[in-house]
Amino acid sequence: MQAENIGVELFRTFLAVSELRSHKRAAAHLHLSPPAVSGHLRRLQDQLGVKLFDTSVPGVRLSTEGAIVVETAKDIVNSHDRLIEQIQQSRSATPDRTTIRIGVPHELRCWLLVPLLAEVQKSHPELEFQLRRGSSTSLLNELKHGDLDICPAVTATPPPTTVRTYQEDVVWVSRPDEEHTLGNPVLIVAHPDGSIVRNLMLSSLEDANIRYRVTFQAAHIDGAIAAVRRGLGCMALLRSNAASDLFQRNDLPPIPHAYWGIHLRQTLPVIERLADDILTILP
Question: Looking at domain 8-93, which of 1.10.10.10, 3.90.550.10, 1.10.3720.10, 3.40.640.10 is its CATH number?
Answer without folding.
Answer: 1.10.10.10
